[in-house]
From TrEMBL:
This is S-adenosyl-L-homocysteine hydrolase NAD binding domain-containing protein. It catalyses: S-adenosyl-L-homocysteine + H2O = L-homocysteine + adenosine. One of its GO terms (molecular function) is adenosylhomocysteinase activity. GO terms for biological process: one-carbon metabolic process; S-adenosylmethionine cycle. The lineage of its organism: Eukaryota, Metazoa, Chordata, Craniata, Vertebrata. Residues 32-171 form the S-adenosyl-L-homocysteine hydrolase NAD binding domain. The keyword Lipid biosynthesis does not apply. The keyword Cell membrane does not apply. Its cofactor is NAD(+). Catalyzes the hydrolysis of S-adenosyl-L-homocysteine to form adenosine and homocysteine. Binds copper ions. Homotetramer. Interaction with AHCYL1. Belongs to the adenosylhomocysteinase family. It comes from the Eukaryota.
Length: 251
């Protein structure tokens, strides 16, 4: 691929060369938000057949995944409460989410988000599911061990706390997968072709490669890019052909 640029950074510690594709811009910008939003709704409806309109949906985590899951639920007519810890992404942490929500979705990538104490505060028939990090966000063990809530209320846990957008449906749309999986192919080709080119450690894909992956999908969306003029490019400190963001810019 033309326009290879230097690797972003290398972290010592590993004994082998590795490429972190999980934090690629195209994954964060497309795959994470767009991958989950439709299958989450599909999964909830497929598994429970509830009407989402009029329900209160509480989404834990206000990142790429959380924001889009919240938007999708709102699109179906739910009122949304979002909880968060990050002052940039989420200005509030709402304990009442567990008490008010009919539908609770974890999207944080963090552990211990919905615990026994939260289950005990939930509304009757609350639907609880996770689209974040595998199975650590919801304390399923507590639920199994307590075999029903003391207050006599019920809740519905989807896919045993694992990813509901995958477990309850056919998975993420293939177009979205296609904006992320080429990163893995590019990384594998690089590792195979140039094992001696980079120092041992964890590297990131260059921005230019991410841009190429994204650009390959634009025609399907009927998007045509505007080209920087010869005057604009140097004004912005860029090449007309990219990369269009500095390496330090994180999405
Ligand atoms: P992100 O970092 O953009 O968002 C996570 C958000 O959760 C952040 O705003 C963070 O401040 C917040 N958070 C962390 N701990 C919290 C806590 N204790 N309480 C409330 N909020 C908390 O990450 P992104 O891209 O949204 O990904 C989130 C998770 O979703 C990751 O674990 C990722 O692997 C997973 N994921 C799942 C997919 C699926 O198909 N189900 C697809 C893509 C990502």
């Amino acid at each position: 691929m033309a326009g290879r640029v230097t690797w972003l950074r290398s972290i010592s510690g590993l004994k082998v060369l590795a490429i972190n594709v999980n934090d690629s811009v195209t994954k964060g910008k497309f795959y994470n938000p767009c991958g989950c939003q439709e299958p989450l709704i599909h999964g909830i409806k497929w598994a429970t057949d509830v009407m989402i309109a009029g329900k209160v949906a509480a989404v834990a985590g206000c990142g790429h995944v959380g924001k889009r899951c919240a938007q999708a639920l709102r699109g179906f007519g739910a009122c949304i409460i979002i909880t968060g810890i990050d002052p940039i992404n989420a200005p509030q942490a709402a304990m009442e989410a567990y008490q008010e929500g009919n539908i609770l979705v974890t999207t944080t990538g963090c552990t211990d988000i919905i615990l026994g104490q939260h289950f005990e505060q939930m509304k009757d028939d609350a639907i609880v599911c996770n689209t974040g990090h595998f199975d650590v966000e919801i304390d399923v063990k507590w639920l199994d061990e307590n075999n029903g809530l003391k207050n006599g209320l019920c809740n519905i846990l989807l896919t045993e706390g694992q990813l509901a957008n995958l477990g309850c449906t056919m998975g993420n749309p293939s177009f979205v997968m296609s904006t992320s999986l080429p990163n893995q192919v590019l990384a594998q080709i690089e590792l195979w072709s140039h094992p001696d080119k980079h120092p041992v450690g964890v590297h990131f894909l260059p921005k230019k490669w991410n841009e190429a992956v994204s650009e390959a999908h634009l025609h399907k969306l009927n998007v045509k890019l505007t080209k920087l003029t010869d005057k604009q490019a140097p004004y912005r400190g860029l090449s007309r052909d990219g990369p269009f963001k500095a390496d330090h810019y994180c999405h």
